[in-house]
Structure formats: structure tokens, C-alpha cells
Amino acid sequence: MNRQAQAAVLFLVGGAMLHAGTTSLYLRYVKAGLQPLLLAAGAVLIVAALATVWYELRRPRPVRRLRDGGEPHDTVLGDPDGGPDDGRGDGHGDGHDHGHGEGPGSGHGHGHREPRISWLLVLPLFALILVAPPALGSYSALRAGTALQPPLASPALPSGDPVPLSLVDYAGRAAYGHGHSLGHRKVEITGFVALDHGGTPYLVRMALNCCAADAQPVKVGLSGKLPPVLQPDSWLQVTGTFSARRTKDPVNGGIIPFLDVIEAKPVPTPKDPYDESWNQ
Amino acid sequence: MTIVKAPPAPVDRRHDEEPSQGWQFTSSHGLVLLLLLLVVGQGPIRRVLAAPVMQSWMTVFLAVVVQALPFLVLGVLLSAALAVFVPPSFFARALPKRPALAVPVAGMAGAVLPGCECASVPVAGALVRRGVTPAAALAFLLSAPAINPIVLTATAVAFPRNPEMVLARFAASLLVACAMGWMWQRLGRTDWLKPPVRASYEGRSKGAAFWGSVRHDVMHAGGFLVVGAMAAATLKAVAPASWLRTAAGNPVVAILALSVLAVLLSICSEADAFVAASLSQFSLTARLVFLVVGPMIDLKLFAMQAGTFGRSFALRFAPATFALAILVSVPAGAVLL
């Protein structure tokens, strides 16, 4: 890949990072706290692209001829790109035996070639801009076991009827406190629908530490008055009361508590589809 | 979409700069062609990618790339500043004359010189060229990617519930680096080392050298990061959870599986902690092995080491590093985690 193409890729990747960071797109992939870092990285990449163009335009042409002759200068220009790094790109150790003097001499007069591996940077760009896949949904949720952990404390429920709770909070109270801290209060939780092989409906929220690669599901079984048709991956806001029923996750044997549903209404996907309470 | 349409401007502008030696198909043209094809074919491509497996694969893939990229950029900026603004002779002066002492000092120096392994190989090559004893340069080569502040911060962020992981990673990596340095001093032969032939940034303006280094490192390390992210996403989205559960179930198999995985995935050390965190079925010790082995030896590092120091060196150095990294990090994990 020559420097022009590299500058274009840097510019595009930087622009894509800025795009993801300034919209809520990045929340599908990483935790909210990374936003400033994303924006800074995007800005740096764009500056690097512009600097590459700038120095490329100002590069004195005569030097190139010198480089063919193997003058000391040529190593200067080719340096950061020559040597061992060529070896890495080829996947062979001997790539750089020929030195960087050869790069400029071969072909386009555009200096050495970057290894082909740089082309792969086009893939995330394409995935982010053209496809922008949704946050992890029922497919991932059913492949992994519930990640519910005993809550550190179960403070008294806030006021309100129904009480808005996070799905992970409800699951922790219901699974480990025998629902004592819930009583007969009506609670309201939000998550997406997943149906297991037997057709049992779960309301799920993926919890993450850092990015979607480490996201793990927390599942709550649904019983009671359910909508006639449940579409996997659709988001529901469910109002209900504690149910003593529970089951074991077939994947890892974790506890899945149930909620006795009174009312379920479809809601749009929340801005941050993940539960990030583990980060606090 | 807006961003996809924006790019042709810089690309086109630079087409005009091509030397007028007739039209040639360069990578700039290739890039424009590729982007055009992707935009035109996005309908069919989207349909193919609509399967849940593909969606989930792409989400994990993007997640790894997006969260790792800021750390990569940060490391690349710092290593470029170091390469351009700190004279290499400084390192030679700063190290003790006795090799046995220079090894731990160089190993510790890795802690303050930020950068990922992609940066540390060229720096170690430069150190050897500047007269630093190879044993010390190798200790630096192994320790720098694993124990610098950026990597340790990333580790702390990725393991918010296990801060002791940071300490264990630091201790085990430093120990392995120093042990390898001393071992080289004892057993190593200079004729295994190919003297690197490279000049430095002298003669270029500082700005050109700095941004040249940034561009180069982002393009290289970024490419390898994409490979690592693809492997990690495949593992997460496609490999049956039962495989990993089986491997994770047996402590010995778990450690071996993750050390091999670290070599195969070749993830940048600034990002590997997040991948390790996602392998939550595995014991913390097995994940520590992953974090110690990965920055020291993996497929891309082997290629880089062979390129910088010669193949006969890499063929001896890499397996030794691999074995020692496992042997040191298992007891370290047992004690500290």
C-alpha cells in the first residue's frame, strides 16, 4: 500500500471513529467511558493522514534519485518503514535483507511498500460504516451462561409504583435474596427477548466490563401474562412481580430467576444496550 | 454513509501528484475501487451478513478493534515521540556497563517506555546497533510491551474486579524478561544475531519523522490488530462454547490452550487484556499466562524478530521465551492471584 492509500485509510478510520464516537453508535461495541478516548484517537488519525499528505507533497523529488543510488539519504526517508517491519509484513524473516534502498527503486517511485496486512484496516471501516452491526442479542445470549453474581447489598427499593429497576438488579435480588427485598412490589425492567430451544421466553440484558467481546448475558425468565407473539431480539419493558419460580441455565448451571409478568410493552432499543453496572 | 463519500477528495487530490510516467495501477486506485465496490454491493453484502452468527461475529470484531484502537494510537504516538525526540545514545549511557546489571535495568526501563510489541522490536534493534549489550536489549524487548503504563492501565481497566492481575502481570513479565536476558548472556552466541542494518531518523525533519513513524506504526499494528480481532471474534461467535468449557475445565489444558491461543491470536499487548477478560470461563492463572506469553512471543512477533535479528536467532529465542513464560507465570499466578 503506498503512502497515498495509507493516508486515505488513516483518514477514513479516523473519520469512522469520530462518527461512532459522536453518535451513540459506539455504545453498541464498547462501554460509555471510552468515548473521549475514541474521539481523541479519531482526531489523531485524521491529523496523521493530513500530515502524511503534507509531507508527501513537500518531499523533495531529487532525493528519490539519490535513494536509488544508495546514498545515506535514502535510508533516512525509508527508515521507519524499512528493515524488520518488512519482514513482519511478508511473514518471512528475510524480507528486509534487501534493505530499503530497493523499495524506492521498484515501480512507482513511491518509496517502499507497506506490507499487505495494512489492507485489513479496510475491514473494520467497512463493518462500522456500511454494516454497523447491532449490539449483541439473543444469539450470543443463548450461547453463553447467565453471568448473574450475588449482589453485594440489596438496599430497600426506591419509591414508585411500579419500581423501575435494572434487569441485573432485579435478577440479583430475586435469585439470591429469595425476593425478600422485593416483597410484593411491582417492578419494571427492560431487556431484549430470547427464546431457548424449548420456547421458554427470557428477558436478557448483556452486561459488559469493557467491550462487547467480554459481554455476558444476565437472564430473567418470563411467566404470567405474556404478549401472544414474542420476537427474539425485540426490546420489552416488562412490569411484574417477584415469582418464586427459578430454573438453571443449561449452559453453565447458573440461576435464572423468574418474573410474573403483568404487562409487557415494546420499547425501542435503549441508547446504551448493555448493562454497565459492573463498572461502577 | 457521509464518511464513505467524503474520502475520494484526498485520494483524488493525490492522484494528481503521481509522477507522470503513464498510468499504473497503484494501491490508491485499488483502495478507491474497493470502496466503490463495497458501496455498490452493500445491499447483497448486508443480506449475507444478516445471519445471527455473522452479526454477532462482526459486533465482537468491531468491539475489539474499536476499544483497542485508542490504546494503539496512544502507544504509537508515545513511541514515535521516543524514537524521534530521545537520542538513542541516551539509552547506552543510561545503562550500567556490566551486562548482568544492565539486564534488570533494561527490563525495568521497559516499564517507562510505552508502546506495544510492534514498537519494541525496532527499538531493541536500535539499542543493539547503538552498542547496548544484546542481553539487555532482549530484556527490554520482552518487558517493554508487557509492563509499560499503558498496557498495565488497560489491564486494570479490563479486570476491574481483579486488580491483583496487574501486579501478577508486571511481576511475571519482568521476571521472564530478565531471565531471558541472563540466559542469553550465558548461552547466547553473537553469530546467531544478524547485525541489523538500519539508519535512523537523522536528516529528516522532526515532524516528518514523527508523523512517518505514527503512520507506519498505525498501519502495521492496525493490520495485525485486525487479524487478532478476527480470530478473537471467530472464537467467541463460532467456536462452540463447549470447546472452551472443556478446555477451561482442566487446569493444565486451560493453561496450555491459552498460551497457544496467545501465540496464534497475535493481539497487540495494548488490547490483549480485554480479550483475556472476555475468556471468563478460564481460570485467572490461565489468563495470566495468556497475558504474559502474548506480548513476548506470537506469530507476528516471531516474524518481526526474525526480520530484525535473523532467523537463526528467532528459532532459538522464540521457543525458549514461550516455555519460560509459561513456567514463570504459572507459579506467579498461583502465588499472586
Descriptive account of the structure:
The complex is a heterodimer of chains A (280) and B (337). By secondary structure, chain A is of the alpha/beta class. Mean pLDDT of chain A is 79; it is low at 62-112. Chain A has helices at 3-22, 35-58, 61-68, 72-78, 84-90, 102-105, 122-131, 138-143, 167-176; strands at residues 163-164, 187-195, 201-207, 216-224, 235-248, 255-266. In chain A, helix 1 (3-22) packs antiparallel against helix 2 (35-58) and helix 1 (3-22) packs parallel to helix 7 (122-131). In chain A, strands 2-3-4-6-5 form a 5-stranded mixed beta barrel. Chain B has 337 residues and is mostly helical. Chain B has 18 helices and no strands. The longest helix of chain B has 34 residues, at 52-85. At the A-B interface, helix 1, helix 2, helix 4, helix 5 and helix 7 of A face helix 1, helix 2, helix 3, helix 4 and helix 5 of B. Chain B: InterPro entries: DUF318 (IPR005524), UPF0718 (IPR052923). Chain B: It is found in: Cell membrane. Chain B: Residues 1-22 are annotated as: Disordered.
The major sheet of chain A is characterized as: 5 strands, mixed, barrel
Estimate percent helicity of chain B. Answer: over 70%
Task: Write down the oligomeric state.
Answer: heterodimer
- Residue share in helix of chain A: 25-40%
Largest sheet of chain B: none
Radius of gyration of chain A: 27 Å
What class would the helix/strand composition of chain B place it in?
A: mainly alpha
Beta-strand portion of chain B reads: under 5%
Keywords (chain A): Membrane, Transmembrane, Transmembrane helix
Organism (chain A): Streptomyces glomeratus
Region (Disordered) (chain A): 64-112
Transmembrane segments (chain A): 36-57, 117-136
Features of this protein?
heterodimer; A: 280 residues; alpha/beta; 5-stranded mixed barrel; elongated; B: 337 residues; mainly alpha; globular; disordered N terminus; membrane (chain A); transmembrane helix (chain A); DUF1980 (chain A); transmembrane (chain A); DUF1980_C (chain A)
